[in-house]
Amino acid sequence: MPTLGTPKNTIEILQKYNFTFQKKYGQNFLIDTHVLDKIIRAAGITKNDCVLEIGPGIGTMTQYLAESAGHVTAVEIDAKLIPILKETLADYDNVTVLHEDILKTNIRALAETYNGGRPMKVVANLPYYITTPIIMNLLEGGAPVDNITVMVQKEVADRMQTGPGSKDYGALSLAVQYYAEPYIVANVPPNCFMPRPNVGSAVIRLTRRQMPPVRVSDPKLMFQLIRASFNQRRKTLQNSLSNAAELPFSREEISSAIENLGLTATVRGEELTLKQFAALAEKLEELHKGR
C-alpha cells in the first residue's frame, strides 16, 4: 500500500471507496508529508512507545506512526472509514483499529491492554469542533498519558499556551497549563489538508506534568473560580465571582480575598496568573471556614 500523505494517493483511495466527507465529524485529511514528519518527531515516538491515535481518518498518519512506534491503537468514530483503514493498514501488524467515540473510550483500559499500564503517547489531527472536550478529557480524566501531540485550530493552540493579559488567555489556557507544558511545534496552512479548512492550524505538544506547577488543596474549587471569572470576562473579578451561582462565597468574602492578595477591586480575571487563582482559592476557603 503506498503512503497516503500526498494529494494523489489520498484522492485515489477516497474515489475507490466513494467516500464523502462528513461535516458532523469535522474531517480534514492531511496531505503533506513534511507536516506528518514534524508531528512524529515532535511526539518523540520510538519503538518502545504505544501510541493512541484519535481520528485516524483513512490512515494517513497511522502509517507513519506504525513505522515509528511499537504499537498504535487508532480510535475512529466514522463507520465508513473502518473498511478503508483495513486496506490502508493491512501491511502493519502493530496497529489496532477501534470503531469507537474517544470521549466514551476507557483509555486506562487501552493502556493496560496494549502497554502494560504504562503511559501512552497521544497523536491526533483533531476535529476542531470537539478539540477542547477531547483534550480536557485526556488531561483531567487521569488517563495514563505521557504527551499529547495534536493538530488543532491555530487560535486554540495560541489559547493553550498564552499568559495573562492576552485576548486569547482564558479558562482553557489555565487548565492546560495546570496539567501540561504546552509547546507550539509548527503552524500549518489550510492547503495541507483535504478538504481545505477555512482557518489556519497548528501542531501543539502538551507534555504531561509530573506535578502541577501550583499547590492548591482543592483544584476543583480553583477551576470553578477560573471558569466563573472568564464567563463574564469584561466584568471585574469581584462581580464575576459574586454573580456565579455555583460559588458559596459572600460578596464580602470575595472582596476580602481579592484585597488580601494585594489586588485592586477593579482587577479582571484575565489579569490573574495560575498561581494567583490558586492563592485566591486557598484564601476564600480559609475565610469561608472561619465564618
Give the oligomeric state: single chain
Q: Tell me how many strands there are.
A: 9
Q: Please give the count of helices.
A: 12
Number of domains: 2
Category by helix and strand content: alpha/beta
Runs with pLDDT <50, length 5+?
Answer: none
Structural commentary:
The chain has helices at residues 7-16, 33-43, 60-68, 82-88, 107-115, 131-140, 154-161, 171-179, 219-231, 237-242, 251-260, 274-289, and strands spanning 29-30, 50-54, 71-76, 95-99, 120-125, 145-153, 180-188, 193-194, 201-208. By secondary structure, the chain is of the alpha/beta class. It is elongated and about 70 Å long.
Structural key phrases:
291 residues, alpha/beta, Rossmann fold, Helicase, Ruva Protein, domain 3, 2 domains, two-stranded antiparallel ribbon, 12 helices, elongated
How are the SSEs ordered, and which strands pair?
Elements lengths: L6 H10 L12 E2 L2 H11 L6 E5 L5 H9 L2 E6 L5 H7 L6 E5 L7 H9 L4 E6 L5 H10 L4 E9 H8 L9 H9 E9 L4 E2 L6 E8 L10 H13 L5 H6 L8 H10 L13 H16 L2
Parallel strand pairs: 2-3, 2-5, 3-4, 5-6
Antiparallel strand pairs: 1-8, 6-9, 7-9
Helix pairs in contact: 6-8, 9-12, 11-12
Short description:
This protein is of the alpha/beta class and 291 residues long.
